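Action item from last meeting closed. Structure (313 res):
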């Protein structure tokens, strides 16, 4: 028993121990098997080396499950808890989804982006996800209370208020100020300002009835246009990934927002005209902040050739 214990301590498995017992002699070579399968990221052992007990021979990344870090807006972090289910997609693997759960929600808010970092554990049975990939997370809202939802494209953000346009029975339109919650799958939660059954106007529907009276709406929105313009910021950026209406961009420091240079997500404004874009391109963007959500791009164009990404305001 003492001899078997010493062989186990040396790293021999049961098959190797039985081989020694059956042959009655010590094996000249010892096969060391890793406890997990994966990719070797660092190999310290070389042929002919003398190794000592406790020495690290290699680092292996097991890929059956992987960790992903997500930046969660602080207004949505209250909906998450360790163990909550998540679904991940990657622009590098279109059409594929990866299920997982929240492993931890780190108790620290990034003062620049107003986000918390959540660590997710994702199932990766075929090893399709690899370290360094960009992924987009979807969280299921597990609250039991009923939630009022409207299509996200119905939301009008003026910079000072958040509005939706209500379609009245007489063919007129009326703006209603709302308080929004989380947004997912093209739907936005309305916490205050609407009731179930009211009809809201989607993008472009103002053209359906040319006789509808929009004078009052235009006047009210026009009063806030300067404020909205004053709340926009411009920067040059490099496209890292594209997933629907979300662009993952790397941008330089933005002094006006006290942001350092970083990589983060931006959302395209509904109906925004844009050139054909692809990862790796330099672009110039104009964006505005959104409470509880990623910054919204309101203007975008390709960067002029020969100009590197510079400062921002």
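Sequence:
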């Amino acid at each position: 028993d003492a001899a078997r214990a010493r062989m186990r301590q040396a790293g021999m498995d049961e098959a190797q121990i039985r081989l020694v017992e059956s042959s009655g002699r010590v094996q000249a070579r010892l096969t060391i098997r890793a406890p997990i399968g994966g990719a070797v990221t660092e190999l310290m052992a070389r042929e002919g080396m003398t190794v000592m007990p406790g020495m690290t021979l290699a680092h292996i990344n097991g890929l059956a499950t992987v960790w992903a870090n997500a930046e969660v807006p602080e207004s949505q972090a209250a909906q998450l808890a360790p163990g909550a289910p998540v679904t991940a997609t990657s622009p590098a693997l279109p059409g594929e989804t990866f299920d997982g759960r929240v492993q931890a929600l780190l108790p620290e808010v990034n003062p620049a982006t107003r986000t918390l970092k959540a660590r997710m554990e994702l199932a990766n049975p075929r090893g399709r996800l690899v370290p360094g990939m960009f992924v987009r997370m979807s969280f299921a809202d597990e609250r039991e209370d009923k939630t009022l939802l409207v299509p996200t494209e119905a939301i009008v953000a003026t910079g000072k208020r958040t509005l939706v346009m209500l379609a009245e029975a007489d063919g007129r339109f009326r703006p209603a100020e709302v308080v929004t919650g989380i947004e997912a799958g093209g739907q936005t939660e309305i916490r205050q300002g609407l009731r179930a059954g009211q009809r809201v106007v989607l993008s472009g529907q103002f053209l359906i009835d040319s006789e509808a009276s929009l004078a009052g709406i235009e006047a009210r929105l026009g009063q806030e246009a300067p404020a909205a313009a004053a709340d926009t910021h411009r920067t040059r950026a490099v496209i890292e990934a594209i997933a629907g209406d979300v662009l993952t961009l790397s941008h330089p420091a933005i002094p006006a927002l006290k942001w350092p240079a970083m990589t983060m997500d931006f959302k395209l404004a509904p109906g925004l005209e844009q050139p054909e874009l692809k990862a790796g391109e330099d672009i110039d963007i104009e964006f505005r902040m959104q409470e509880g959500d990623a910054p919204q791009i309101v203007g975008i164009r390709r960067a002029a050739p020969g100009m590197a990404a510079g400062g921002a305001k």
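Note appended to the action item: The CA atoms of residues 134 and 224 lie 37 Å apart.
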